[in-house]
Specification:
The complex is a heterodimer of chains A (109) and B (158). Chain A has 109 residues and is an alpha/beta fold. Chain A has four helices and five strands. In chain A, strand 2, helix 1 and strand 3 form a beta-alpha-beta unit. The longest helix of chain A is centred in the middle third of the chain and has 17 residues. Chain B is built from four helices and five strands, in the order E-H-H-E-E-H-H-E-E. Classes of the chains: A alpha/beta (109), B alpha+beta (158). At the A-B interface, helix 2 and helix 3 of A face helix 1, helix 2 and helix 4 of B.
Chain lengths: 109, 158
């Protein structure tokens, strides 16, 4: 019932690996980590969801803030390796239309 | 009267307990025979309701308790989340919910407004009673016995 966030950098890409659950308890930590990264111009932020086994609207809120920040600061965000269950929430809320989400690995699509 | 088992859980109105309640509902729903997908839906729905209650409690006093009731029926699970703080403006909340539409301005995106919308999308029936604090009552049916969904129901809130 916790979230581990690992950040690594390679050239102009920042990789965030999330392990665990994103809810109202863990979302503030995620927001504090991801927002500063999106404020650097030209920065690409890749968030790896492969080991996220639970997420709810508090997580969606974090990624909406991050997306807004990328538009303001001319950076970019990609959400990768998303599991079907988590992808479904982005789909239901219409966020798949505006976010760069790659669910190919887990979804088998 | 239709018989049912009732389980009540009371937790402090703090975000760190949301995961604990998720484990409870997961156990109850699993015992009832819900599918893996339905259990995941229930986990999100109950977390959203508790998140709302926690936020509300913090706004009011920064403390308090949240009571969660599980009405376990043969064909459905009724979940009650009661936040015995004040009441929020439901009209305002309802206006705020709904999915993002392509022509919405990105600046207008609701960072915190998806909670009730998700509850509504993931559960079969959702009712909100704000007479004494705020009580969210949500129902999910076991798919095998979905008939009778429109029939008369006795709610655990009565």
């Amino acid at each position: 019932m916790n979230l581990t966030i690992d950040v690594s950098h390679k050239e102009d890409v920042a990789y965030l690996t999330l392990v665990g659950e994103v809810d109202a308890f863990t979302a503030p930590k995620l927001k504090d980590t991801i927002l500063p990264l999106t404020k650097e111009e030209g920065q690409v932020v890749e968030v790896d969801f492969e080991q996220v086994n639970y997420m709810d609207s508090t997580g969606l809120g974090v990624f909406i803030s991050a997306l807004k920040s990328t538009k303001e600061h001319n950076s970019e965000m990609k959400l990768i390796h998303m599991q079907d269950r988590v992808y479904r929430l982005f789909k239901i809320t219409g966020l798949t239309e505006i976010m760069n989400i790659d669910s190919t690995v887990q979804g088998g699509m | 009267m239709e018989s049912f088992d009732f389980v009540e859980v009371k937790v402090p109105a703090k975000a760190e307990y949301i995961g604990v309640v998720r484990l409870s509902i997961s156990g109850i729903a699993n015992r009832m025979g819900f599918t893996f997908e339905d259990i995941e839906d229930l986990k999100v729905a109950i977390s959203e309701a508790i998140t709302n209650a926690v936020k509300h409690a913090y706004k009011e006093t920064g403390e308090g308790e949240i009571t969660i009731g599980f009405g376990i029926y043969e064909n459905r699970l009724e979940v009650m989340v009661a936040d015995h703080g004040g009441s929020f403006n439901l009209g305002e909340i309802k206006e705020d919910i709904g999915p993002y539409k392509q022509d919405d301005d990105i600046e207008e995106l609701r960072e915190g407004g998806f909670g009730l919308f998700l509850i509504d999308a993931l559960m079969d029936k959702v009712e909100i009673n704000s007479k004494y604090g705020v009580i969210v009552l949500m129902t999910k049916y076991l798919h095998e016995t979905e008939v009778g969904q429109d029939g008369d129901q006795i709610s655990t809130s009565q």
